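Sequence in, structure out. Go.
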Amino acid sequence: MENKKIVTRFPPSPTGLFHIGNARTFLFNYLFTKQNNGQIVFRLEDTDKERSKQEYAEDIIENIKWLGIEPDFSTTVKQSERTEVYKKYILKLISDDKAYVSKEKNIEVGKRDEVIRFRNPNKKIVFNDLIRGDIEFDTTELNDFVIAKSLEEPIYHLAVVIDDFEMGVTHVLRGDDGISNTPRQILIQEAIGAPRPIYAHLPLMIDTDKAKLSKRKHGEKVSVSYYKNMGYLPEAVVNFLALVGWNPGTDQEIWEMEELIKVFDIKKVQKGGGVFNPEKLDWINKEHIKRLSAEDLQNKIFEWLPKEMQNPKIVPIIAERISKFGDIKNMLSAGELDFFFKAPEYNKEKLIYKTVPAEKISENITSAVKALSEITENDFTKENIKEALMKIANNLENRGELLHPIRMALSGLDKSPDPFIIGEILGKNETISRLQKAI
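Output:
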């Protein structure tokens, strides 16, 4: 293969939403192929007519593009449109006595009484896996296996071998649940005169409980569209997926695509399952949010805010508190941003700090109003607000005597951004108005 152009493939089945595990497999194909200046061909394995749907095909393509791991769509092949191609190979295999029409016995209800079986030469096969080394199979136990239900209905093993052959695929990088398929496919390759591609079987993704990621157990969280809709950045999802089952051998954890293409090493992919840890994904996503330009950050946050809340001054506050943009939706539903746009309602007892008398609290807030009144509107910044208030707070027995009631007066919340930032965003008049209400 050294002098041959590397060709890999993305062969999804449009029988469900684009699976996050398939996305990781496709990403590894992408990194390996781009690193070697190769080509990634694309095909839809849509021979399951009952389960294959156009909406799923569109979801796969849309999310591949969103992640930025696009194959060469000009090579797109649909298995459902290749019936005559498969038929030609089936007839040739039968003609060469490498396959035969089998009259089935003891037929179950709904099963066919006639299928096409491959004539198994019953031999040992050894193939080299880029991740796992040499793997040996005794194909005798496979018996004469089925390769087609009829001349017009090839099953997966035959169709995939023919497609890989005709599309010039040199390397097959797929999940390790495909290892058991490999001996059948190698026998078929030999029977049709196809060269054997180089294999690399990737570890499956598992959850933190070591269970396989599945729609039955994990629901919508196994689909790429879930992460897109939750407001994750595609570059962060790519960064995270690259580290599920592969390690660059360094301490660096935040990567851009171009960096990954340079350092990716297929032989450093681990053999055991790759753990999908949502907490790590959130951390990586937050790190990528920090890398956004001020303009991009504001635009992305505004996408999640109603028009009346799209104030540039609250962008840093929101950015500090989210790990993904979908968190803004939760902040809105919890009313965590309401106080920026309307005066908060709260019980007056909430203004009291520990056992400090109400008269003392009132006196402290009055001092704060006086100090803030001396700052001009144009100079009403968090730095100047902080300087004015801390002069008062530092002379008290406990700074909480002033800062707690001011936070409550401005936000109505026990936990909120610091009152200096809130004051700057509200502006001088609204800040003083809320403090006077507290008094």
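Check: Residues 24 and 241 are 6 Å apart (CA to CA). The longest helix spans residues 20-35.
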